[in-house]
Amino acid sequence: MTNMEKYKEAFKEALEIDDSALTDELAFDSIPEWDSVGHMRLMASIEDAFDIMFETEDIMDFGTFGKGKEILQKYDVEL
Amino acid sequence: MIFDQLEKFGDATALIEESGKVWTFAQLVAEADNIAGYMEKRSVAFLLCCNSASAVTAYVGALRHGVVPLLLNGEVQDDLLEHLLTTYHPKYLWMEVGRKSGNGTVLYSDGNYQLWDTRAEIYPIHDELAVLLSTSGSTGSPKLVRQSYQNIMVNTLSIVKYLSLTSKDRAITTMPMYYTYGLSIIQTQLFAGGSIVLTEASMFARVFWELLKQHEVTNFGGVPYTYEMLKRMRFGRMDLPSLRFITQAGGKLAAGLSAEFAEVCAEKGIEFITMYGACEATARMAYLPWEYAQEKAGSIGIAVPEGRLALTDDSGSEITTSDIDGELIYYGDNVTLGYAECQDDLSKGDENHGVLHTGDIARRDGDGFYYITGRKKRFLKLFGNRVSLDAVEAYLKSQGYLSCACAGVDDKLVVYTTEDINSKELCLSLSEFTHLHSSAFAVVQVEEIPRNSSGKILYDRLKGLGV
Is B165 on the interface with A (CB under 8 A)? Predict the structure, then answer.
């Protein structure tokens, strides 16, 4: 699986949503699945997928699907 | 009544809105009395709440003027609200401007909220009745808990005492105001002359932590799920010098997590206080003094001041020896009057007489500290929300899922079924029904649902077929 596939898979699994929902604009609190419960699952599943541990700041900044890709670069994950 | 003397705090800060707008006690009282001035005493009013000054001022006003508020989720669905309206016929509705309403006239608006007169007749309600709260905010059952003025006063005094709340304390909202724990925090802070930062922001939002730091918040509360969030946010690494204590209630925190927070808080000089309560006991029944947070991690502690805890066996006799499981019984003047399921019930007096059978199974250690070990009644706490398993089963039947049985643990409700069903669809349907995230639900296919000879489902056996 490529990193991009892993990234998408983490979203689909944590938020229980389909591929079609995954655009860069998909944002926290914009869909019922990505509420604070969903956010916690999402952070856990991305950390697991790439074997990283997010800083507090990044958990707060992780506001959209697109922003998340930028944040992952800080952890040397190339998407 | 707890808010009768708020004037005495004068120009001290009472509320801070997310925008930074500050309300002194004098301003809070003036606006509370202003809103209440439009309402007749001993009438029922629905308050559609969010964590805002509009909701708090109306609540304070209602209590000061003998108007009985039912606190509801500000985002309550229209059909559910309609159902409650036809069940309880409130004279007044306090809700956000722009929200659809039925017939009636607007009596007053503060710019954000409007007070509607529904034109319903005022009907007799009991003199002692002070506040109505929903037993389950999430499934929207019309079953309410009736709290008296004395209930609220007794519980408030007791909480202020064991938390040593003073006018220097300042809370930040972390849960909804219509939820008994959230309401209790607002109530006790105001009573003590302290203040509250009002926000709807989640802990995952930067603004929450900015507000906490900027306004030098001294305390907040959280349900188990809040603590899962705090752990993920690396609470241990945060620099929060103003924080004096944090409380945990609304369900049992996993023993490991409880121990972890006890340790982290001890290092940071923050008091970590586990508590136990229920809407039926106004708010709080037990607390674990922070000095014992590490030694007794996982315990709900001891009874709150003026209350008493006991355990009873199956025959109803009190268990006097330690380390034996029994049903947890609470005695105290904060045990609420009883339930209401229809308008006529609001004229009823005290039906509980200061005794609450909690439905929780607990044991007491040799030092007198209580530990919850199980549950007698068929409900789970999902992210702090009490959800009746029987209500979920009934709902599933109504949706055409005929062969389902529900069990599970807190934060994970499991539907066992013999049918070949689309589990994702079912979880989404339950999420819609309970207004909770679909990850709270799971489906397990079983060959048959175990029953005894009389056809009763054997839930204990079901759990063995687990996920």
Answer: no
